[in-house]
Write a structure and sequence with these properties.
alpha/beta
Length: about 220
């Protein structure tokens, strides 16, 4: 049996799950405005392991959200994951945050566009087919009324950008799945297990989260 600990801290949702052979058996999570990751993460890790009735020695790998997302949240999650992998001498698996978010949409046609809020009308986004194949890799972009206008099929948007984006993304084929706001560690289980089976892991010593730096930088004003 393969038990994998999944850690998702890229957004306001502090989320931890234990998966057995790719199926989530227990998940603990909380989404708070003030980011409670530092206080909650290690408590959740201890709780899911206890409730799954296993020990840390039963873990075959730790999976962690690699971003994009909150700088502080990602650092907290990756640091905890690395510490466990070092101590237990088990592999580290990195999971695309936007893939996790997209996998929470239960659709059979069209495209899925997960978006994570950056600032103003800026988002981190990626485009997936309904069967979660990547159609366009991660980009940092500004959302306008012309965004994604070249799509004719149904587009399903997920993430924490619905409130600000649905005012400009108003085409008839655009659907906002507003109940899917944050990525969850429960949705990482199948992804992490597939990666584990393929030995698709990262170097514990050198792995860094995938930060998308500020991408709309105003030029410095010239002093008169």
């Amino acid at each position: 049996m393969s038990f994998i600990l999944n850690i998702e801290t890229a957004t306001k949702n502090c989320s931890v799950s234990i998966a057995k052979n790719g199926e989530t058996i227990i998940c603990k999570e909380i989404a708070e405005e003030g980011y409670s990751h530092a206080e909650k993460l290690h408590v959740f890790i201890e709780e899911v392991i206890a409730e799954a009735e296993i020990t840390v020695q039963d873990l075959v790998a730790v999976a962690v959200s690699q971003g994009p997302g909150s700088y502080t949240g990602l650092r907290i999650g990756v640091s905890a994951a690395k510490g466990l992998c070092y101590a237990l001498n088990i592999p580290l698996i990195a999971i695309d945050t936007l893939q996790t978010l997209a996998s929470q949409a239960n659709v059979t046609e069209g495209k899925i566009i997960p978006m994570i809020d950056a600032r103003r009308m800026e988002v981190y986004s990626e485009i997936f087919t309904a069967d979660l194949e990547i159609e366009r890799p991660i980009e940092a972009e500004i959302i306008t009324e012309d965004s994604f206008k070249y799509f004719t099929e149904t587009i399903y948007f997920v993430g924490d950008c619905a409130e600000k984006c649905k005012t400009v993304l108003t085409r008839e084929n655009f659907v906002f799945l507003e109940e899917i706001k944050y990525p969850s560690a429960a949705a990482m289980s199948k992804i992490s297990y597939n990666k584990y089976q393929k030995s698709d892991t990262v170097d514990v010593a050198y792995f860094e989260p995938y930060y998308l730096k500020d991408f709309m930088m105003a030029p410095p004003s010239k002093k008169q």
